[in-house]
Design brief:
The chain is of the alpha+beta class. Helix content is 25%, strand content 43%.
Length: 151
């Protein structure tokens, strides 16, 4: 009898899943949900943390998830706050505390706090060429970018 009761309680506790078209896996305590082709996030109890409004929600990594809305990209935290505004034409996943972004024909980086350092495509290409020629390393570039953001 106890097993049936536990199974029933578990099924009843997860009935929230039925109201969504899709439910993803949990990462850092939150799962993606899709309703009418829009994505949001729920916690393990099924409570909506972010209502389905985004065209895409990536998995959380170190407290942030990449999102897309109307072909613009940004990042949200676990409360659904847009930490990096959804305004970029494209945003890569974070590496070493920086995300490469594109905005209005400019390429640059944003920090996890939303501070940005944008470069023109020409300057970005010059830096990439310097890396390819091994004049500077990627680590040196990242340190340089971080110093520029602090200034």
């Amino acid at each position: 009898m106890k097993l049936k009761a536990k199974a029933y309680l578990r099924i009843a506790a997860e009935e929230w899943r039925d109201k969504y078209d899709e439910v993803g896996h949990f990462y850092e305590g939150l799962a993606q949900v899709m309703f009418k082709r829009k994505y949001g996030l729920v916690n393990k109890q099924g409570t909506e943390v972010v209502p389905p409004k985004y065209d895409f929600v990536d998995d959380f990594h170190k407290g942030l998830a990449r999102v897309r809305l109307y072909d613009k990209w940004g990042y949200i935290d676990k409360k659904g706050t847009e930490v990096v505004p959804v305004k970029y034409d494209y945003a890569e996943k974070f590496r070493d505390g920086l995300s490469e972004v594109e905005l209005d024909d400019k390429v640059g980086w944003v920090t996890r706090e939303g501070k940005e350092l944008l470069l023109t495509k020409d300057k970005g290409t010059q830096i990439i060429n310097l890396i390819e020629l091994e004049i500077i390393t990627k680590k040196e570039l990242i340190n340089w970018v971080k110093e520029q953001i602090v200034k």
